[in-house]
Design brief:
Elements: E1 14-15, E2 18-19, H1 29-34, E3 53-56, E4 62-64, E5 69-70, E6 74-82, E7 87-88, E8 93-99, E9 104-105, E10 108-110, E11 113-114, E12 119-120, E13 125-127, E14 130-131, E15 136-137, E16 142-143, E17 154-157, E18 160-163, E19 171-173, E20 178-179, E21 184-185, E22 189-191, E23 196-198, E24 206-207, E25 211-214, E26 217-220, H2 223-235, H3 245-254
Parallel strand pairs: 3-6, 4-6, 5-7, 6-8, 7-9, 8-10, 8-11, 9-12, 10-13, 11-14, 14-19, 15-20, 16-21, 19-22, 20-23, 22-24, 23-25
Antiparallel strand pairs: 1-2, 17-18, 25-26
């Protein structure tokens, strides 16, 4: 089951800008979210005072890297980790979340984990979710993290339906996933890596990797098309796709 993580993240899991070694107690993204407080056991507040930014540490530490930029009129409720070279845009509300290095974030974010180089640069609610590297969430992309009947959230993982044993869980979004403006994600949505989502209504709760979802239909993205988009997005952050191309090609062939 852990092997299925390779359809979400191609390399190491990064927590608080460090490699996190998976163990038997926390194997899956919904477990990381449900136990996010544990990742702050050894984190101390940076005691940063920023003009026109509200920082509340009453529920946990708030660590902000010295190289991070927090724009005015942001509210941060701990525990929160904001890593190197992150940008938190004005009028955002961040709580109980881990935002690893080189991310851009705006809007309301609650109990979520961003891997490095992930973008949510516009308004929209993200709750109880895991966002892998090189994701770009279009303006207004919003997750549901609680069902109307308050029942446990079920996710499709490695071909099985698994009970997260929590009423709160949003989405798992794999590396290099792009969503269009106004995308709505239902509770327990899993989008595997390399997919492109174009939808203004709720899409299916499972999208296989390297898929193009448009007008209610799923089609396969060619590796060349995936490579072209991935190369452009990574080059904007001065990262060369060719250094990881073989890894993604192997994952593409195995699908």
């Amino acid at each position: 089951m852990i092997e299925h993580l390779k359809k979400i993240i191609s390399s190491d899991l990064i927590i608080n800008d460090k490699v996190y070694n998976l163990d038997d107690s926390l194997k899956f993204p919904w477990q990381w979210i449900a136990n996010i407080d544990l990742f702050f056991n050894n984190i101390e507040s940076s005691y940063t005072k920023i003009d026109n930014v509200v920082i509340d540490e009453s529920n946990g530490p708030v660590f902000i890297s010295e190289s991070a930029v927090i724009e005015p009129f942001v509210i941060i409720n701990g525990p929160v980790f904001i890593g190197d070279n992150c940008l938190i845009k004005s009028h955002s509300n961040i709580s109980k979340s881990i935002i690893n290095h080189n991310c851009k974030v705006k809007g309301e974010v609650n109990t979520s984990i961003f891997q490095p180089f992930a973008n949510k640069a516009h308004e929209g609610f993200l709750g109880h979710s895991f966002i892998a590297s090189w994701v770009n969430l279009g303006a207004g992309t919003t997750t549901s993290n609680l069902k109307n009947n308050y029942s446990n959230v079920i996710v499709r993982w490695n071909g099985e339906l698994i009970d997260t044993k929590s009423i709160f869980f949003g989405s798992i979004i794999g590396e290099h996933v792009k969503t269009s403006i106004g995308t709505n994600l239902n509770t327990g949505t899993v989008i595997e890596m390399g997919s492109n989502i174009v939808s203004q209504s709720f899409l299916p709760r499972f999208i296989p990797n390297f898929s193009f979802y448009y007008n209610g239909r799923i089609s396969k993205i060619s590796f060349e098309d995936f490579k072209g988009v991935a190369s452009k997005s990574m080059s904007r952050r001065n990262v060369d796709f060719s250094s990881v191309e073989a890894t993604f090609f192997d994952l593409y062939k195995k699908d």
